Amino acid sequence: MTALRRRLAAAGRDQGITLVELIVAMMILGIVLAVTSGTVLSLTRATSTARIVDVNVRESSNGMNALAQSVRSAVDLQQPSAADRPAFQLASAEKLTVSTSVNFVDTQSKPVLVTYDLDANRKLREVRTQSVRLGSSYWQFTGTSVSRLLTAPVAAPAGTPLFVYLDKNRTILDPGSTGRLDDAQLRRIAFVQITLPIKSTTQQADNGVTLVNTIGTPNLPR
Length: 222
Description:
alpha+beta; 5-stranded antiparallel sheet; 3 helices
């Protein structure tokens, strides 16, 4: 039996790996896992950030497009026995009411009264009120109203209001202590500067998006 064991030992020795070799292999495996997991984590974080920014950009764009369309299509309203009513009927830092020729309800060419303001959660809200014909060319806004939310919460202003109103010379119209423009100033509005800062949907403040646009009123005789 002893001779047989000697022959088997001489034929091939299999003593496994040493402790040092095992430790080195574990260290290499740890380094590979650390590099791989770090790369995967970075890619996941970048993908998540890009998705959040994309959502915020789309939210801002939707709100800005709706505002631009309404302001650009603003029209004064003819009155049967008085001066035309100005297109802008209310103008303050965070609320805007304007009569516009954009009608999404039917194919009739008639004005629509549109109000933009912020709800209790500071989301941009649009309220559209249909007009009813009074005479051959006169309208009043006593029709049905439809409300919708356009954006995620809007960040609190940091020195720049949501709406700034300018005359034809691009001079800012000051609302004064009342916080809103008076009737004479409403008739002078030729441009509206809109600053739309959409808050980040995560805890990372740099994921927020701010769009700024100055919109003219080509339909108004200014």
